[in-house]
Amino acid sequence: MGKFELITFANASQLADEVAAAWLEEIKCAWLAGRPHFVALSGGRIAAKFFESVVQATKLRRASFGHVHFFWSDERCVPPEDSQSNFQLAARHLLGPLGISSAQIHRIRTELGPAAAAADAEAELRSVVPVNVDGQPVLDLVFLGMGEDGHIASLFPGEPVEVAGSSAVYHAVTGPKPPFARVTMGYKTLAAAHRVWVLVAGEGKAAPLRASLGQSGNTPLATPLARLLALRPLTRIYAEHSLVRQPA
C-alpha cells in the first residue's frame, strides 16, 4: 500500500482555509520558478467551501493565477451551466471571482456526449501538460474529494476491470446515482500527478476513510481511494479529525 500523509482539522472551515493557503504556496513557487501550474479540480460538498477560502486568501495575499491552467478530475454529463456540473461549481465559486481567463480553463465538454467528451478531454490535457515515460500527462496537483462509499473522482467501488486497469486518461463511466453518465480521470493519470490532495469532510465518511487507510478490518483495496494510494508513492489527505478518530 502506498504511503500517505494525514493532516486533520477541527472542522471543514479550518480544513478549507489551510488547504487554500497551502495551494497558494504551490502556485507562488511555480510563479517564482517561471513555470506554469497545472491543476485538476473536483466537485463535492467541500469543494465550494474550499474555493471560497481560496478567493478570500487570494485577496489578502494578492496572489497571481496568470500561470495556472485548470482541468477537472471528473464531470457529470450535464450542461456546463447546470447546478450539478463540477465546472459550474468552480466557475461560480472560484474561476469567476478570480477573473480567470478562458484560455486557462480546460473544462470537460460534456455536450459532446460521454465517449467523445472523454476523448476530447484527453486530447486537451495532452496538448498542454507534459507526459512521463509511460505516456501519462503529469499534472502538478490534483484535488479529490471522497464519497461515503470511498469513491474518488467518478471512480466507484466495483468498477469494471477495464476501467480500473486502463491507461486511458479519461473514461466515460456510469455512476451509481444520477446523473449516471460521467467522465472521469483514470487511476494511472491520477497516480502520475506530482501531488494529489484528498479533502475529506462531512458525515458518513469515517468508515470508508479508515478502510481506505487500512485502519479497519476491511480489505484495504476495497475502496477506490485505497486503490489510488497503492499506486502512488505519497498522497496527502486532509480530513476532519472526527473522521479518523477511532470509535470508543
The CATH architecture of the domain at 11-138 comes to: 3-Layer(aba) Sandwich
Strand residue content: 15-25%
Termini separation = 26 Å
Order of helices and strands: EHEHEEHHEHEEHEHHEH
Unreliable residue runs: none
Describe the structure.
- The structure is a single chain.
- This protein is an alpha/beta fold.
- It has a domain at 11-138: Rossmann fold (3-Layer(aba) Sandwich).
- Helix content is 38%, strand content 19%.
- It has helices at residues 12-32, 45-61, 86-98, 114-128, 161-164, 187-192, 206-212, 224-231, 241-244; strands at residues 3-9, 37-41, 68-72, 74-76, 141-145, 170-174, 181-185, 195-200, 234-240.
- The chain has a six-stranded parallel sheet with strand order 1-9-8-5-2-3. The protein has a three-stranded antiparallel sheet with strand order 4-7-6.
How would you sum up this structure in a few lines?
The protein is of the alpha/beta class.
Which key terms come to mind for this protein?
248 residues; alpha/beta; Rossmann fold; 6-stranded parallel sheet; 3-stranded antiparallel sheet; 9 helices; 9 strands
